[in-house]
Amino acid sequence: MSKTKLSILLPVLSVFATQLTGCNTPAxxxxxxxxxxxxxxxxxxxxWNEGNRLVKDGNKRIAEGRDxxxxxxxxxxxGELQVKDGQNMIEQGKKLLEExxxxxxxxxxxxxxxxxxxxxQPAESIEVFxxxx
Length: 133
Hints:
It comes from Methylotuvimicrobium buryatense. The chain has a domain at 28-106. It has three helices and no strands. The chain has helices at 3-21, 30-37, 41-106.
């Protein structure tokens, strides 16, 4: 087998070997392979690995940003619901106020939404016991 075919198959074979053996050793990256070749490829391999690291970090931050945006959208939706509830309560309050003003102007007693309870009546007879000295 020629050297070029072997260099192409090596990463593929290492992935299959990792999957078959259950070994957690990752296949060498392209940057690592460049560094092993030596010469002018060392610097290129180092930059390649650094670029891959930056890409992974960037993708992670993008995913975190998307999660944060989704959480923000949920919070905004909850806030909008609270605003609508508040507006409905204001409208109900305005209607009650208008009804109260109308009833006040016509002289009719206002009917409360809350049940009225009779005021407590004084007791008919209260026994008072003298304090002993």
